[in-house]
């Protein structure tokens, strides 16, 4: 992009009002659409697997062959530790009659007693669509505690109850997340600018960007089959606020710097935008392209996050490079009150690092002993990485929520009195002609507690067989049992057997995520490296930056391992490592992009050593503020009541802070100083990059 084009982006005396009117019209159209985004959420994709998975094939066969039995089960459990009484059995029978009106098919089978005589189970499919089931489950929950004998414990569990618990947990969470995110950003901006007015401008601008992104996602979901769920919508909101405010901080800092050098605020904005838009565009491109790498994933929930997040990044970039400059220029210098930047002819050639005392001293520290600094920083990051040993992959289903919910309570009550796999048996679907052989093969598998009688499909082609597991469905032992069960029934000639069920789902999910990790993670690294090469026109610097963020990711996982273990959440949801890797690599590169582009600019006029130290000094404060804002916005995900979102919030927040305070502030500049001019090999910092209104710096950063 040429200088003329970059300058032309800046709002002029008339175009600033045209930009403002354009955005007002745009938001007036986008607002009503953004509100409807929740209407097009397809939260079923959160649990979907690719078509190639055996679980998906089994589910599709069951759906086609047993169309009347695909409704989720509700399971009512009744427990008395001293043994069931006649009054307890009468209560269960009365509920069976009452629940019949809610059961798909209008009938509820008789209660199933436990062998120890302390528990009863009522299990029935719940009819209707998702909204109707939500209303039905409310009626069932109201009925269950009615006329309950003293000391009889009751709970509602099963897939239908679990679905309802998720629905209730997230009811109103969209607004809570938005308020938490906006409140966090507002507080940090107020602290950063120490102005009663200025903080409102980037906050309102980023809020409008979020409205635009939500409207675009709604239209694409409505008319172009874009998959969106509550997870991708929540992460999009956090991304827009976090990244958008980062861009605002960078632009406003450069604008403030130029206001000291220009009497005309329009000219100051033109220079500020020209000098910062390259880094902002590279940052946006890195994050957006990194997110689009998720399209290569097989897991639908991971794949759907890519385009939704990329739309949010594009909206933030557009708002912060068009609307924000226009508003800043319209309102003028008084926005910065009480610290108004005044024009001074002497400021044209003055050293701006004089205004950054803390970072001037940090730059001096890095410049004195760069090798010791980068070695010490790298050693600290490596030491933190050992905390990974506290983490493991595989989040048990009863630990999915941050608080106890009814479906989890019921599941634990069942496990205490029935075989652990009673509520979620493995489901075998096979050819009807080989039903006996399939049942016989299943009964020989260690870890299978009970194999039910075959149920024949209405067309007579297929049978369905339930296999109750000895162990809880999400345990490693159950996973091994289903693997053996699959091998056994697959070996029956002509059976065309498929094994589904909750445990089979976990097996196929783990395989899918493992494949996605091997495919997407290297792709993200390649894309980020390519962006850095194009931006910096070098090979060594991009390699250094990429290596630094990978080390930062490993250290973040280790540090988060210590925190999550202390919180009681050390078992990671299977998709968390890949998603956090993407965000930390893409977002971590952001800060080094801001530093590296300024270093390249300053190196052209100050020389490599002074240019790197000058860039560290003048960008240190704004990039640190940006990192704190981004970490805090991701921390807002902690308001959501799911453990996977809490794990993601902790890992990303810790990683961003490590990038901000260690990698970008110490490791990268110290490495660049130690390597010297070869950092920019095979190119060199272009002198054109450093020319501009600012002129030569009279007082460069001291080396010691």
TrEMBL record:
Read off the Pfam families from this record: MMPL (PF03176)
- Tell me where in this chain the SSD domain is found: 198-330, 544-673
InterPro entries in the record = MMPL_dom, Mycobact_MmpL, SSD
Q: Which GO terms describe its cellular component?
A: plasma membrane
From which domain of life does this come? Bacteria
Main location class: membrane
Q: Which UniProt keywords apply?
A: Cell membrane, Membrane, Transmembrane, Transmembrane helix
Family that this chain belongs to: Belongs to the resistance-nodulation-cell division (RND) (TC 2.A.6) family. MmpL subfamily.
Name by which UniProt lists this protein: Membrane protein ActII-3
Q: Which organism is it from?
A: Micromonospora sonchi
What gene codes for this chain?
Answer: actII-3
């Amino acid at each position: 992009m040429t200088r003329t084009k970059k300058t032309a982006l800046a709002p002029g005396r008339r175009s600033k009002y045209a930009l403002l009117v354009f955005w007002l019209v745009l938001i007036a159209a986008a607002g009503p659409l953004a509100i409807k985004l929740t209407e097009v959420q397809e939260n079923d994709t959160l649990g979907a697997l690719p078509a190639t998975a055996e679980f998906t094939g089994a589910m599709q066969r069951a759906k086609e062959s047993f169309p009347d039995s695909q409704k989720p089960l509700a399971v009512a459990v009744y427990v008395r530790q001293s043994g069931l009484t006649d009054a307890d059995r009468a209560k269960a029978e009365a509920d069976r009659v009452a629940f019949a009106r809610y059961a798909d098919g209008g009938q509820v089978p008789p209660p199933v007693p436990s062998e120890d005589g302390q528990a009863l189970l009522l299990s029935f499919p719940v009819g209707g669509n998702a909204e109707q089931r939500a209303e039905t489950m409310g009626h069932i929950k109201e009925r269950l505690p009615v006329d309950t004998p003293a000391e009889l414990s009751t709970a509602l569990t099963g897939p239908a109850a679990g679905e309802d618990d998720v629905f209730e947990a997230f009811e109103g969470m969209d607004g809570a997340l938005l308020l938490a995110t906006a409140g966090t950003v507002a507080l940090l901006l107020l602290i950063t600018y120490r102005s009663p007015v200025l903080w409102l401008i980037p906050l309102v601008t980023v809020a409008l960007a979020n409205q635009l992104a939500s409207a675009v996602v709604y239209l694409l979901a409505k008319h172009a089959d874009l998959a969106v769920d509550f997870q991708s919508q929540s992460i999009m909101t956090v991304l827009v606020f976090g990244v958008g405010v980062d861009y605002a901080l960078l632009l406003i800092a450069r604008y403030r710097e130029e206001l000291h050098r220009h009497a005309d605020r329009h000219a100051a904005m033109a220079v500020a935008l020209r000098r910062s838009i390259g880094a902002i565009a590279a940052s946006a491109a890195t994050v957006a392209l990194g997110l689009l790498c998720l399209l290569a994933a097989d897991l639908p929930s991971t794949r759907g996050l890519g385009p939704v997040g990329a739309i949010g990044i594009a909206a933030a970039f557009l708002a912060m490079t068009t609307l924000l400059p226009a508003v800043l220029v319209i309102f003028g210098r008084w926005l910065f009150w009480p610290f108004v930047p005044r024009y001074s002819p002497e400021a044209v050639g003055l050293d701006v690092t004089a205004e950054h005392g803390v970072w001037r001293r940090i730059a001096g520290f890095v410049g004195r002993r760069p090798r010791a600094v980068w070695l010490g920083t790298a050693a600290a990051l490596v030491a933190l990485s050992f905390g990974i040993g506290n983490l493991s992959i595989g989040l048990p289903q009863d630990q999915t929520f941050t608080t106890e919910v009814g479906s989890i309570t019921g599941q634990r009550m069942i496990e205490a009195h029935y075989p652990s796999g009673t509520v979620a048996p493995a489901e075998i679907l096979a050819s009807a002609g080989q039903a006996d052989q399939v049942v016989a093969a299943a009964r020989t598998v260690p870890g299978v507690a009970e194999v039910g009688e075959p149920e024949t499909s209405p067309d007579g082609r297929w049978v369905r067989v339930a296999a109750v597991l000895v162990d809880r469905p999400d345990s490693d032992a159950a996973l091994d049992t289903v693997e053996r069960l699959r091998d056994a029934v697959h070996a029956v000639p002509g059976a065309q057997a498929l094994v589904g069920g909750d445990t089979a789902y976990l097996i196929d999910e783990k395989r899918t995520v493992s494949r996605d990790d091997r495919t997407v993670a290297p792709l993200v690294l390649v894309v980020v490296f390519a962006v850095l090469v194009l931006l910096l026109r070098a090979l060594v610097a991009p390699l250094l930056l990429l290596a630094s963020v990978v080390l930062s990711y490993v250290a973040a996982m280790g540090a988060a391992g210590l925190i999550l273990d202390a919180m009681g959440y050390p078992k990671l949801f299977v998709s968390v490592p890949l998603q956090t890797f993407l965000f930390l690599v893409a977002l971590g590169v952001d800060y080094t992009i801001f530093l590296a582009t300024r270093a390249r600019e300053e190196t052209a006029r100050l020389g490599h050593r002074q240019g790197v130290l000058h860039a560290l000094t003048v960008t240190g404060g704004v990039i640190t503020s940006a990192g704190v804002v981004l970490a805090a916005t991701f921390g807002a995900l902690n308001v959501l009541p799911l453990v996977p979102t809490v794990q993601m919030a902790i890992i990303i927040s810790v990683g961003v802070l490590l990038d901000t305070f260690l990698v970008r502030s110490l490791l990268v500049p110290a490495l660049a100083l130690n390597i010297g001019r070869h950092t920019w090999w095979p190119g060199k910092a272009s002198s054109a990059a450093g020319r501009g209104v600012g002129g030569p710096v009279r007082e460069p950063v001291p080396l010691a």
